[in-house]
Design a protein that fits this description.
heterodimer, A: alpha/beta, Rossmann fold, six-stranded parallel beta sheet, four-stranded mixed beta sheet, 12 strands, globular, B: Rossmann fold, 24 helices, about 55% helix
Amino acid sequence: MSEREKILGRIREALKVSAPLPGSHGDTAAHASAETPTSHAREWLPSVGVSVEEQFAMFAKNAADLKADFQLLASRDELKAALLKLRDAEKWSRVASHGGEQTDFACKALGLPVTLTDRGYAVQEMEQCDAGITECDVLIAQTGGVVVTNRSAGGRALSVLPPHHVVIARREQLVADLPAAFAFLQQKYSPDYPSMISFITGPSRTGDIERILVLGAHGPKKLTILCV
Amino acid sequence: MSFVSQFKTLASEKTRDLRHRQVIRTALRSYEVVRDKRKAAFQSWESARQAAAETKWEAINHLDTHLEALVAKLEARGTKVHWASNGVQAREIIAQILRDKKARSIIKSKAMTSEEIHLNRALEKEGFTVVESDLGEFIVQLRHEPPYHIVFPSMHLTRGEIKDLFQKELGDAPSDSPEELTMVARRVMRQKYITADVGFTGANFAIAETGMISITENEGNARLTAALPKTMITLLGIEKVLPRFADLALFLPMLATAGAGQPMTCYNTMYSGPRQPGECDGPEEWHVVLLDNRRTELLADAEQRDALHCIRCGACLNVCPIFRNVGGHTYGTTYSGPIGAVITPHLRGLQEWKHLSNASSLCGACTEACPVKIDLHHHLLQNRRNASAAEPAFFERLAYQIFGIVVNEPIFWSLAKKIGWLTQPLQKAVKGSALDPAKAWTKTRDLPPQPRESFKDWWRNRK
């Protein structure tokens, strides 16, 4: 008998005795048959405004709390100006990115040498880049974070290896909350999910020394979200 | 030294160590403030807890079907799945993968399951280089000690101690600023990610519906571990399953809130395979090792089965008055605090570890803090009951029998009251010394003074 069969056998044996259900409370006592315990998660998670303006305001507040830089821009010209400002302020000499409508525009605007990940890349070269510029799948008002996948954001390393991660997003990518983000991912990808989906909520951080917040533990020290 | 006497010795040392107490208190005070703030931001934290408990109940009480679904999905995308009944098997599976790959160096992100099976020691013995990449884990690895806390491995250390450690072990510690010390670790680790042959991770959740492993972290070290090395290995306990992808919408913010008072942990990443055709990076091979290691024995105890709902957030440790006084290392277990006291007797033997269930004031703070509603303090009582039912202690039973006779017979009871009153000054004189028959109890406690007149006497004599 394989270990798989042995472990599954022990599980089935153990489950012959049923365990009491966790204490019930009023409002979930009767699930409709299609419902799962987490179907109503939206009603319990932190509240999000109804209008798009409120949700952008919430996104901006949450992003600021996380020490991410969020800029809501009116046009592509403003996007270009914001990118050039970052390039000059941090004296970028090389960036890493991937092919995409937003990223192509950003790379062209920057006018710097670019390491593109689409057809493979040298890790050492990406490590030397000053910023990683990616697109994303959604912005989540509830958390102030973004979701990237290796399909939409140039692989697994691009959004985490360079010291500054710049996300170029579109306004219509904003969703209200986490349940909406999961529903979006399911609709967009299921059943063929990208092999990596990452919810990024602020720049890399640690509190392992006296619980004092330090940014840029291993991932990017800075996260900039530019939304047009 | 037996586990119980080791626990007692360390516990009495640590509770007297005021510096230790100060460090832990400072660390946890800031945690409490932010956690309460985040909990208050939920529209209904209590409903969320209930739903999380029901979801984990569903996952654990249909564990076989969920595991089979998970594995089928993982394998369909080229992931190699291994099953290990115990730590010896899991270590051998992992070592064999390393030998097959002719690997030398392994970069690890935080995994309590690997602590549970003492993986690093086994791999180092075979000549592999293992580097912990989580900052806290890296610090305790340099100190050759186990993590102090399941979420905050190095919370018992001050910045000064970490500076000295880095100076001694790495020859690089510009100052004791947490920022600069973190940057030292960042520099050390960068090249290790790029040159490591194998990346090793743990897991926070496994999604049966979509065949994904979800990893929660703040630093980005797990992201890099799962991106750069050619081979990736993930070790997870079989209890980590969740039924559906969408369940994460609730579990991710709850884990972050209960564990560290964050709205969301910085990186929550779901992996569903090794590098797929058309993808530009990621490991060529991904091995997932499913670990039982006596979890099925805990599963067989229907009364305490909900202990397998645990999402390892550490909230019960943070609020436990015992943990806060005796500290994480005193337990001598991989999982410390209330959850450790509940599950260790199941994972490592009831009689050897029953003392942990007695190291509790039964205040219930752990049960209240638990985001998945594990009935922790009642499980501590059940462990006590099970331990004494299996191996009754002769003197304890005798003492309770005598006590039963005394309280049931009015003559004996009033006699006992008189003796108590008369010997009271004597007890004060010998309190805690070798002459005191109750010294184990009175050494650290005061006996309340016995009044001249009992309530019963007062009632009878009242006008």
